[in-house]
Design brief:
By secondary structure, the chain is of the alpha/beta class. The chain has 20 helices and 38 strands.
Length: 713
């Protein structure tokens, strides 16, 4: 394959299904020049359906049976976007999300299916699709079963999913001593209607042995608040209802300009959408070449390699390969504690060896995506420059340049411009480099990071100028990058009540976002360095974003940690500005590139006072300590530590916890100095506005001996 033939293009994947993930991996490994990969999914994790029964039975952890999408994308050099697609516009090659539009050159859709739910007022209705939603409700169900020992549980649907899940539930209840009654209702004459009579008889016996009542030839007509009603009018009591019937295609397909068949995306034999040679689809969400394939992960897994090869071949202008669905497939159903049954045609083989075979196949497939790999970092990775505020010049280097500056104002990000006849004006400037590959989200984070300088002074920006730096790609890709960042900045600026008046753009080695903010206010701004003895030091949010962003960039940050980090980075401090105005705040600053200790030294400034810091009170983001133990830290971390340690007294506490004080922060917390008599009221206000992790981390002392900052228990 000649990579030089490829053009600069965007390949976008919608949905983290089995086929899409295999295709992304194939394209990433193909090393096609100029090809950018993006995955859009509405969750950071995608379940592997083959291992879910084992997960429900307690044999696999959540991580073992879920694809960690943000981590997989980071490892493969792809962009991950958390979002829900609302519409595909094939004429414009554009995807519509709630707050942005994303352009593509090639598109692949693999989003699965949704539950087909009849009207119901039942509060404990558990559709098996989508699987992510079901797992949350399953946890509620198991908690309820531990508290209440006798309830009525109904499964609607006697196919493979309904049979397997009802058996798992019965065995789960036996383990916790719960005597709830289970009923399995099937509309046709037999359970497992797509399998042979041997399999049907085998599982009829298994269900009976587990005490599960089976009602066949009984279509359900209604699901009420405490029962389900059958076609003949019979009512079956039901505290919980599991819905394992046929599912339906996503509703948003109806808003697309793509051909549909019974609501599903139509594809030809190449997994292409007809009349759209650059759009592909796979998995349960398609109607394949006029055939109604079973909605099973077995088919999606087989489609993945063909999907990946055809996208590559289409990019290179080569002929496409036909996907030929298997006429006969082997189904493996869990039938007991680490036992399974293999169903093929009218044959069935059961036992622990079948379980071991299935376990081997499933775990091998999951491991192929690097879910359990943790390779040692090489020298290049350890020395790579960070994104976010971790890319700043270190405090020692900066101070050496500015030490003899004739203009001390240059030390500040935010300055006041006094006017004789009007309120003072305020200006600030800030720039960060790419820390997440989703440029829409990156721009939102960048805008909030810049606005922090205003908010921590009790001010609010009213206008801004942007600087957007994009990589040297083709003109088309540069336009798309600019558009993504500009739309992200517009979105966040609107939320912050600030207008974007203009800006500047340029080509850069690394995508960057800069912002100049302007505001005017008659209220005096809160000083950065005016500490008073007895001031209580309040930290509004946890520390640790620098190392976590570095871990994400290296593909080593788990999805749940990345999700928590993004939520942290998108918190606006606008409401904090309102709170600060209510109190007599002596000093305030945002914690950014120089880390907590570096900024605390700035707050102390030239005053004769010191600070006592309680290390155990410092809030730290989950995952930071684990990252640092594995050698993952921001590229500015060591410089921050060298500078801060010269101001820090002796300490006996855990050095690992201390490292959080050197970590650079992007859109970081505020460090607020307030007198004791106002502290409780201030903390209550913070908590009421969502700053639930705000902590008192120390106080200002009237004197100090050898070091400005001392650590106390």
């Amino acid at each position: 394959m000649n990579s030089s033939e490829a053009k600069s293009i965007d390949v976008v994947f919608v949905g983290g299904g089995h086929a899409n993930l295999q295709a992304i991996r194939m394209l990433a490994m193909s090393k096609l020049r100029g090809v950018r990969l993006t995955l859009i999914n509405d969750n950071y994790y995608a379940p592997y359906s083959g291992m879910l029964p084992g997960h429900l039975a307690g044999f696999y952890s959540f991580d073992e049976c879920h694809f960690d999408l943000s981590r997989i994308c980071a490892q493969l050099g792809a962009t991950f976007i958390l979002g829900s697609v609302q519409r595909v516009c094939s004429k414009k090659n554009e995807l519509h999300l709630p707050s942005q539009k994303i352009s593509f050159d090639y598109l692949s859709i693999n989003v699965g299916i949704q539950p087909q739910i009849m009207d119901s007022t039942h509060s404990n209705l558990l559709p098996l699709k989508p699987i992510g939603d079901f797992l949350k409700k399953w946890n509620d169900f198991t908690k309820s079963m531990k508290k209440s020992k006798s309830q009525d549980i109904v499964f609607i649907g006697g196919g493979a999913a309904g049979v397997e899940l009802s058996l798992i539930t019965a065995q789960k209840l036996q383990q916790i001593g719960n005597s709830s009654r289970i009923t399995l209702i099937q509309s046709s004459k037999e359970i497992l209607p797509t399998h042979g009579t041997f399999a049907q008889r085998h599982f009829q016996k298994k269900l009976k042995k587990e005490g599960i009542q089976v009602l066949t030839s009984n279509p359900v007509t209604r699901i009420e608040s405490n029962h389900v009603e059958l076609k003949g009018g019979k009512k079956i009591p039901a505290h919980w209802v599991f819905l394992a019937t046929h599912a339906a295609p996503p509703k948003w397909f109806e808003e697309c300009d793509l051909p549909l068949s019974s609501g599903y995306l139509s594809t030809n034999s190449f997994l292409q959408i007809p009349n759209n040679s650059n759009i592909f689809a796979a998995g349960d969400c398609i109607q394949f070449d006029g055939h109604n394939l079973p909605k099973s992960g077995v088919f999606a897994v087989r489609q993945g390699p063909i999907l990946g090869k055809n996208i590559i071949r289409s990019i290179l202008g080569k002929g496409l390969l036909k996907y030929k669905p298997q006429k006969l497939s082997l189904a493996i159903l869990r039938s007991g504690h680490k036992k399974a049954s293999a169903l093929y045609l009218n044959f069935i083989v059961s036992g622990s060896l079948i379980w071991k075979l299935k376990n081997y196949i499933d775990t091998k497939f999951m491991k192929s995506f690097g879910a359990h790999k943790s390779k040692k970092l090489n020298a290049e990775e350890l020395s790579a420059l960070c994104g976010g505020c971790g890319s700043k010049i270190g405090p020692t280097s900066l101070n050496k340049v500015l030490k003899n500056s004739p203009n001390p104002v240059i030390h500040e990000d935010l300055v006041s411009i006094k006017n004789n006849s009007s309120p003072p004006s305020f200006l600030n400037i800030d720039v960060i480099t790419e820390c997440v590959s989703d440029l829409f989200t990156f721009a939102k984070i960048g805008f909030l990071h810049s606005a922090n300088d205003f908010y921590l002074k009790g001010l609010k920006p009213s206008a801004s100028l942007l600087w957007l730096g994009v990589k040297n790609n083709s003109n088309l890709l540069q336009q798309r990058d600019l558009k993504s960042m500009y739309e992200g900045a517009l979105n966040q600026a609107e939320l912050e009540g600030s207008n974007i008046l203009g800006g500047h753009s340029s080509i850069t080695d690394k995508t960057s976002f800069g912002c100049v903010l302007y505001g005017s206010d008659s209220t005096p701004m809160i000083p950065k360095s005016s500490p008073q003895p007895g001031d209580q030091m309040v930290l509004t949010k946890p520390l640790g974003s620098g190392a976590l962003l570095r871990a994400h960039m290296l593909g080593r940050l788990p999805g749940h940690s990345f999700q928590n980090l993004i939520n942290h980075l998108l918190v606006s401090n606008r409401t904090l500005s309102d709170i600060l105005r209510k109190y007599n705040i002596s000093s305030a600053t945002d914690i950014s590139g120089f880390g907590f200790l570096g900024h605390l030294v700035e707050v102390l400034g030239s005053s004769p006072f010191g600070a006592q810091l309680c290390l155990s009170n410092i809030p730290i983001l989950p995952g930071f300590l684990k990252c640092f133990q594995k050698g993952v830290m921001s590229s500015i971390h060591k410089q921050n530590a060298e500078f801060a340690l010269t101001h820090l007294g002796p300490f006996n506490q855990c050095r690992l916890t201390l490292e959080a004080l050197f970590d650079p922060q992007t859109n970081g917390p505020g460090l607020i100095l307030i007198q004791k008599n106002e502290l409780n009221s201030f903390l209550n206000d913070l908590n009421s506005q969502g700053y639930i992790e705000a902590k008192v981390v120390g106080e200002i002392t009237p004197t100090f001996s050898r070091s400005r900052v001392s650590l106390v228990e």
